[in-house]
Amino acid sequence: MKYKNTTAYQHGDKLKIGVLLVNLGTPDAPTKKALKIYLKEFLSDPRVVEPTFPRWVWWLILNGIILNIRPKRSAAAYASIWNEAGAGSPLLAISKQQHQAISAELNNNNIEIVTELAMRYGNPSIKSGLEKLKVQNVDRLLVLPLYPQYSASTTASIFDAVSSELQSWRLIPETRFINHYHDHAGYIDALAHSVKNHWQVHGQPDQLLMSFHGVPKRYLINGDPYHCECHKTGRLLAEKLGLNKDQYRVTFQSIFGREEWLKPYTMDTLKALPAEGNKHVQIICPGFASDCLETLEEIAVENKGYFIEAGGQEFSYIPALNDQPDHIKFLTKLVTEHTKTWLNQTPIDHCETKNLFKNMN
Ligand SMILES: C=CC1=C(C)c2cc3[nH]c(cc4nc(cc5[nH]c(cc1n2)c(C)c5CCC(=O)O)C(CCC(=O)O)=C4C)c(C)c3C=C
Ligand SMILES: [Fe+2]
Ligand SMILES: [Fe+2]
Q: EC no. (predicted)?
């Protein structure tokens, strides 16, 4: 049969609202083998790598060169942040905490919404997350990508994966998709609160760097709003903190490959700051809802090194919002805002054929 049946559904059952929280994903282990599997899935996604040359050329470069070199290097970086006590990858562990906390917050507020967590690449997969929602009789689905800023390489890729899975369902849920929340007051407030808490311990720096994951500059030229949304987040956060334009910078990190990416690069900025008289720098990564390799290793260790080598004196990384209470409250609010009209509906029992079915069985 081409289409999957809604196995748990019996005519007359109460139908539910479901939320699928989706983050990027992470390897299953900090090993060369696991990295090869993860990077192959990630870098084969045409939303992530949009080559300027035919896809078969990219296939050759990926399988012939990148997947023979990068897994070893990346595995070593992952090993340095891996929680060997069992929690594993920080990105997955934190995403699980966020999922549990959002679910608890909904319960505490007596809001009848079921939630599942999925990863765009690796596990738990989007397919498994959607299937878990399906067996709970979800007929209205909200997809919340854990990316504050929209980028085709991340947000749209989740859309592709969700819609691709739903293509095999007989009864598709009524579906809503959150594109972004880069300028939501609740998100900006949570970021500002986190920075102010950091200042209470570490003092106010000469420069606050707001570092976002980069994408090729070509994506911006071709219409991706990501760059604009990062800058808007940066401006709103600075306004909330009362910083003037000389006290903060928006920069881009995690460059991959040889083409030009969004600039200024975080790395170059950190190397230049000490000579400009900025000896005390703090860095926040507002594009990451959860700490991960790109924040815990690339920023807090590698980039700190560049700054200190260049003559910087004080450097601190302000953690991602993770499962901080105001972040969880905000994400829960985002869910209720986007499901408001569904929540206001009387519980759905739209089965007209319940009795007919009883007679038929
Ligand atoms: C090759 C192109 C890449 C694009 C475009 C890209 C965009 C992008 N990525 C994130 C968030 C994360 N990326 C992470 C890791 C990571 N990113 C790339 C490549 C691109 N990302 C690679 C190859 C990797 C793997 C690590 C490595 O080998 O260097 C992570 C961390 C995942 C983890 O397990 O901790 C995150 C998060 C965003 C937001 C984004 C575009 C806006
Ligand atoms: Fe990335
Ligand atoms: Fe713009």
A: 4.98.1.1
Residue 347 has pLDDT above 90, yes or no: no
Q: What is the pLDDT of residues 262-285, one digit of tens each?
A: 999 999 999 999 999 999 999 999
294 is known to lie in a ligand binding site: yes
Angle (deg, nearest 10), helices 185-202 and 226-241: 50
> Which residue's alpha carbon is nearest to atom 30 within ligand 1?
294
Domains belonging to the chain, first-starting first, are 16-26+89-180+325-343 (3.40.50.1400), 185-318 (3.40.50.1400)
Ligand 1 in reach of 154 Cβ (< 6 A): yes
CA-to-CA separations, 260 to 80, 134, 217, 219, in angstroms, rounded: 28, 43, 6, 11
Phi, psi of 156 (to 5 degrees): -65, -30
State pTM to two decimals: 0.94
Token output for 130: 């959607």
**Residue from 213, 215, 227, 258 whose mutation best tests the ligand 1 pocket (most atoms within 8 A of CB):** 213
Q: What is the ipTM of this complex?
A: 0.95
Centre of ligand 2 to C-alpha 282, Å, is 22
Measured from the Cβ of residue 313, the count of other Cβ atoms closer than 10 Å reads 12
